[in-house]
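pasting for ref
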Amino acid sequence: MRFDIITIFPEMFESYFSRGVIEKAIKKEIIEVCIHNLRDYARDKHKQVDDRPFGGNQGMVIKPEPVFHAVEAVKKKEQACVCLLSPKGKNLTSQMAKDFTKCPQIILICGRYEGVDERIAQYLATHEISIGDFVLTGGELAAMVFVDSVSRFLPGVVGKRKSVEQDSFSSNLLDHPQYTRPRSFRGMEVPEVLFSGDHKKIRYWRQKKAFEKTLALRPDLLECKKTAKENQNDLEQPRTQMKGKDNESN
């Protein structure tokens, strides 16, 4: 799978893509990441990529010509997805990231300044993507997040495939609490249920805590009545078995 990133700050990506899981995926040739300097596709002598907005306003806007030229030059696949990274876009979700793995090539356009000429979004981009309801100084960080989130769903990128399937958001729930050594730290104890050896009881406890955490921190994920009802039913089924044992599992 190939990612092409169009940016005016190509040097920002050197450190991130030369470390960790993404670096290993590149070395194993599972993914290919190519960084392109937008200024290389500006055809005026000053390599200008931005200009003042029509109608008057603060800041500068990315011009359409260099972006169109860049995308046309780096596009290798007819089915390539062209993603404009913008706070006006659709919020990236885990399911969307998984769906993007079907694209053989993804071209990411990093916005800057006050944004990009609307003709880029309307006539060039196939998708307009946001990583959250906030504004960044540019799309470079968003591009890194996008590549990371999509790559994790490709076979061989993450060592244990099952860990990806059980991550937060995989079932519209946040992940359950995790603990490791030491068992006791500054008076803070690990829940006893995790040492019970009863895998059914542990599985139930984890599901219960995941539901409670989602309800407390991200109730919007449970707005789907079916999801909430299914999880609530699952929690109620073993409740009689757990009665009187809440103290050891809290």
